[in-house]
Specification:
The chain is mainly α. Helices cover about 95% and strands about 0% of the residues. The chain has 2 helices and no strands. The radius of gyration is 28 Å and the shape is rod-shaped.
């Protein structure tokens, strides 16, 4: 009976572990959704920026000297913002890949834990 009691306790521990793993999987899925929303927002900002950039490039030529400096500064600002968006998108892509890897690892742990629980359940049923 002592061995049966220990197996029941082990099964209870495995069930609690399953619950924690499921919670981490859920958190990873929420992070993935958040990162994907951030990626969409970043792409929208880039689209708006590019439209503004194209409009600025359509200036009538020749540009008067006073407007030329402002136009150059504006185009430089557009370029800088585009570079920042590119860096942000690369960072988000890496975060997404890392989070997906964590979720996959947790799913693997969950499957393994479920198999171990099934084995313990079978042994407990056979010993009773």
């Amino acid at each position: 009976m002592d061995a049966v009691n220990q197996m029941e306790q082990l099964l209870a521990v495995k069930k609690r572990r399953e619950s924690r793993i499921r919670q981490r999987i859920s958190q990873s899925e929420q992070q993935i959704q958040q990162i994907q929303r951030q990626q969409q927002q970043s792409m929208q900002r880039r689209g708006i920026l590019r439209t503004s950039w194209q409009q600025a490039n359509r200036q009538q030529h020749p540009v008067p000297q006073g407007k030329l400096y402002r136009l150059q500064q504006q185009l430089s600002d557009f370029y800088q913002q585009d570079q920042e968006i590119t860096q942000q998108q690369q960072t988000l892509q890496q975060q997404l890949a890392d989070t997906i890897a964590v979720r996959q690892q947790q799913q693997h742990l969950l499957r393994r834990n479920r198999v171990e629980q099934e084995k313990l359940t079978y042994v407990l049923e056979e010993s009773l």
